[in-house]
Amino acid sequence: xxxxxxxxxxxxxxxxxxxxxxxxxxxxxxxxxxxxxxxxxxxxxxxxxxxxxxxxxxxxxxxxxxxxxxxxxxxxxxxxxxxxxxxxxxxxxxxxxxxxxxxxxxxxxxxxxxxxxxxxxxxxxxxxxxxxxxxxxxxxxxxxxxxxxxxxxxxxxxxxxxxxxxxxxxxxxxxxxxxxxxxxxxxxxxxxxxxxxxxxxxxxxxxxxxxxxxxxxxxxxxxxxxxxxxxxxxxxxxxxxxxxxxxxxxxxxxxxxxxxxxxxxxxxxxxxxxxxxxxxxxxxxxxxxxxxxxxxxxxxxxxxxxxxxxxxxxxxxxxxxxxxxxxxxxxxxxxxxxxxxxxxxxxxxxxxxxxxxxxxxxxxxxxxxxxxxxxxxxxxxxxxxxxxxxxxxxxx
Length: 396
Fold this sequence. Notes:
Number of domains: 2
Radius of gyration: 22 Å
Strand content: 15-25%
CATH superfamily of the largest domain: Dihydrodipicolinate Reductase, domain 2
Helix content: 25-40%
Number of strands: 15
Shape: globular
Largest sheet: 9 strands, mixed
């Protein structure tokens, strides 16, 4: 390949936008006027966290109501925000005609009930991940949304909206990694994942992630983010799903496993994905590697590096050193190329910015009922394998 052609093909960072494709540009260039009145159903860590993010966007969102069944969460919220009604019954949120948009951030087994009720009340919906719990719920909900074409429904896989992850997707699409054959993803910790409870009767409501009745465990709560990104970046779903695991460290009455591994085979892509999580070791923490014949991308939640294979690295160093035509930012020892100059912001900020864009433009969100539904289906199949054994086959 001629050096000029290589430069034109490359562009590395120049060819890759620092903003997500199609995301954010209209927010930056157009004046917005409408402020959406929001109700939040479920006020645990995620619901209160999204409230905090929305408070940083006062020209876009105004929180008008909170629904929370646990008194030790509802009462502090009422004291902190005396101007906002706090209800125990979520239907009070849906009955409020001033509220046009609802955030659902309840335990996974409640998502279907609450999401369905929001749609039937005629309101827009921001539904936390994982979208839904069971395969039957996913099919039913995907059929249901066709009856509500004027309502915007976004699912909260927030990393999908980060400029860093858009850049990774473009690296993949432009062939910078060559032929990708392996994905290796982990999300590890060295703690019990258990929350303190004020009284034993609240154990299952607070620590719902520990119980199969409510939760998809580590696969749903952590690994679904990385699985979702691979589905989206490659526009694919796996053909075979195999999982295993156990309660291998914390013998504390939990039902969902504290140590899991899921292997996915993507036949069309010619790729294997390995996704694992443990509560018994924190060394790797969040680790996400995409491996191709010409390079590897290593990702954190808000930062990333492209490590070219030796031949690719030599070409990139020649272009960078001789012509200066590519704005490559090498890390200190020149073993890899930084994907972003500065770590990105909390992914929820990008996700809610684009949710606002979709509300204003009546546009389908990037993380929508179809593709987030595929991720929820994958999580359900993976957990069937993790807890029941055997290889599961994807069926549309």
